[in-house]
Write a sequence for this structure.
């Protein structure tokens, strides 16, 4: 509804509405759930702020619960847009955190206003594809025209709709913002997003309507910073969610696979009104363009969190030239610091302050070691973005960087002198050296989706090549295999598991079958086998000859450190790597593949890395959405390999990742479908193959 609004805000509404509708959800009772007459009953609204995370109001997810029932941990239903054609999907979510936390112990009487900030974070319990809103980075909203969205039933069925108004001021010491009375807020809209139409960003969460007339209250999204910290040495929930938010939009901005407008695209199209200190020409010397800002936030999200809120404030003060506003909730992430650099004193350009800040962050102290090259990548971007500045300003940034590097090196040396480090006993994270379960599959060349199989126990390094058969069979379809193999694999596991550790399942197949979802099979106890034990792929028997080069690569990868290298794509575009290029990579390289193993260019790449002696290779079953960027997967694998350090840790780490996904951890969803080729020369496979079934 844009009646009565200015032409500029009407155009902004048209541009932003599809993005907001795609990310806004209906919150209701879980399918077959409780507290309502059925799963279709609407409790309120919410919206995706990061992959797997929905933000709503605490009173929405507390609907129908008793006075003594805890809200945290409660399951709710989430109905969301699952595509651009109006289709919807429903998934179960679990309330991860409510604000304030005392709402779990004491809630207001029915019909009373819930305590501010009245927010809830809901974790989606399945890896679904969905859109996300863009959250403001500003510490305080500007009082401009906005739109608010939520679930209504104007035509008798639940529908996400939007309306426009203006922000009229703040309340609750800035925790809430007042919505004008241009239109009515209906009950089902509670928990929906409030979008700044000038800047194209979500600034609030619809909380309440007035009893008489239109308008009401919304909660500032900045209140998310009041989430409890993760404790000493841990990343808090706020940092995890904001990091996932920024990386999502960064990946969308860089990807050229999608055809729909992104939030960054729309922000670039929005025309700011005259006199607005934020608006005007984005490409001028004073401000970052939306694409630059998205990239900056993505690069900041690649870094570990700051050591403390005061670290962020100190860098903001150094970049801004004055003490930042102390009243909003303390900044918890590097992103929050950027939001404190708008409208600098003395009419100075925002871009210079933000580039100073980015320079300082690139040489700052982090809570843990950054991913290799992450801080240098931030500096490279900063230096490139500074190309628009005057030469003295560019020189200032370069000198700032050099001084920061010297200061950081001094802090590291001082710490090393103070801390006496004893020999660290590094726990073994590798695979057990004993027997393992071996599953071999062979496809019929003349029949589609028909396989022969054999389950055995592979003795291991103590008895190289010794194989103890368990069972075998012929002519099973892929759909039938989990049930056919349930008993044989259970027996193999009984033979290989010990009281201390579960044995490994090795799956020996041709590369075309590396996409087989063996790790998702539920064979024992209803839990995926990949969560219960390490599951790795092997090249099929006789398809890989042992060579001195292969042995050298294996030893180097096992010792680490590990280097991730994309095998079948370049920034999301498919590529076929040449054997010469693959052969020239360092011995500690782990090729990472993100596309379907049975199709080109991945199939050719897998054959090439096999022939060149690569014993450790990362693969993936691609997601159902072909337009989904692969950048989160590659980023996650790069960080996982760097953190693992040694190759011997990878199978157990992949098992842990699968466990996190099974436990519905959105921060692990990037790893969905991940697989590992693990060709241990100390565990050779037999060369024979079973006879094919009858002709």
């Amino acid at each position: 509804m844009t009646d009565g609004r200015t032409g500029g805000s009407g155009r902004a509404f048209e541009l932003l509405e599809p993005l907001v509708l795609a990310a806004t959800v209906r919150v209701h009772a879980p399918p077959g759930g409780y507290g309502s007459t059925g799963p279709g009953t609407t409790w309120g609204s919410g919206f995706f702020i990061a992959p797997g995370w929905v933000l709503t109001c605490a009173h929405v997810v507390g609907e129908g619960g008793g006075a003594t029932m805890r809200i945290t941990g409660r399951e709710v239903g989430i109905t969301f847009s699952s595509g651009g054609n109006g289709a919807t999907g429903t998934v179960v979510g679990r309330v991860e955190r409510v604000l304030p936390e005392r709402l779990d112990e004491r809630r207001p009487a029915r019909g009373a206003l819930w305590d501010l900030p009245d927010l809830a974070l809901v974790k989606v319990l399945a890896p679904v594809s969905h859109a996300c809103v863009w959250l403001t980075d500003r510490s305080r909203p500007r009082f401009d025209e906005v739109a608010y969205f939520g679930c209504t039933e104007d035509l008798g069925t639940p529908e996400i709709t939007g309306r426009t108004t203006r922000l009229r001021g703040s309340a609750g010491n800035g925790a809430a913002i007042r919505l004008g009375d241009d239109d009515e807020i209906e009950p089902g809209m509670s928990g929906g997003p409030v979008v700044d139409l000038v800047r194209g960003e979500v600034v609030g969460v619809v909380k309440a309507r007035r009893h008489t007339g239109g308008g009401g209250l919304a909660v500032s999204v900045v209140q998310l910073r009041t989430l409890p910290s993760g404790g000493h040495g841990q990343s808090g929930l706020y940092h995890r969610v904001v990091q996932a938010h920024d990386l999502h939009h960064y990946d969308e901005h860089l990807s050229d696979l999608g055809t729909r407008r992104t939030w960054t695209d729309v922000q670039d199209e929005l025309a700011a009104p005259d006199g607005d200190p934020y608006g005007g020409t984005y490409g001028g010397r004073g401000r970052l363009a939306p694409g630059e800002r998205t990239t900056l936030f993505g690069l900041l999200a690649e870094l570990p969190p700051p050591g403390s809120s005061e670290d962020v404030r100190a860098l903001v003060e150094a970049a801004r030239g004055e003490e930042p506003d102390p009243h909003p909730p303390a900044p918890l992430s590097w992103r929050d610091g950027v939001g404190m650099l708008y409208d600098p004193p003395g009419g100075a350009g925002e871009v210079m302050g933000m580039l100073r800040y980015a320079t300082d962050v690139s040489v700052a102290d982090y809570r843990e070691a950054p991913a290799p090259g992450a801080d240098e990548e931030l500096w490279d971007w900063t230096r490139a973005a500074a190309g628009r500045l005057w030469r003295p300003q560019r020189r200032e940034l370069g000198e700032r960087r050099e001084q920061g590097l010297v200061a950081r090196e001094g802090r590291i040396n001082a710490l090393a002198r103070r801390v006496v480090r004893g020999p660290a006993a590094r726990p073994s994270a590798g695979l057990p050296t004993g027997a393992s379960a071996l599953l071999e599959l062979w496809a019929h060349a003349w029949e589609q989706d028909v396989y022969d199989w054999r389950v055995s126990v592979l003795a291991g390094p103590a008895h190289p090549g010794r194989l103890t058969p368990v069972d075998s069979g012929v002519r099973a379809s892929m759909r039938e295999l989990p049930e056919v193999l349930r008993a044989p694999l259970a027996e193999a596991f009984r033979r290989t598991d010990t009281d201390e550790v579960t044995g490994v399942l090795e799956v020996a197949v041709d590369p075309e079958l590396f996409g087989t979802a063996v790790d998702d099979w539920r064979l024992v106890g209803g839990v995926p086998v990949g969560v219960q034990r390490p599951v790795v792929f092997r090249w099929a028997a006789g398809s890989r000859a042992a060579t001195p080069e292969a042995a050298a690569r294996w030893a180097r990868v096992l010792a680490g450190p590990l280097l991730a290298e994309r095998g079948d794509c370049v920034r999301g575009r498919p590529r076929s790597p040449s054997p010469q290029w693959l052969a020239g990579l360092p011995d500690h390289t782990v090729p990472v593949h993100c596309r379907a193993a049975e199709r080109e260019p991945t199939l050719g790449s897998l054959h090439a890395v096999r022939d060149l002696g690569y014993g450790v290779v990362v693969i993936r079953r691609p997601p159902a959405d072909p337009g989904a960027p692969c950048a989160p997967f590659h980023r996650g694998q790069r960080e996982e390999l760097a953190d693992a350090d040694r190759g011997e840790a990878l199978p157990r780490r992949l098992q842990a990742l699968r466990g996190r996904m099974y436990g519905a951890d959105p921060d692990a969803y990037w790893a969905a479908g991940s697989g590992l080729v693990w060709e241990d020369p100390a565990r050779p496979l037999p060369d024979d193959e079973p006879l094919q079934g009858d002709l």
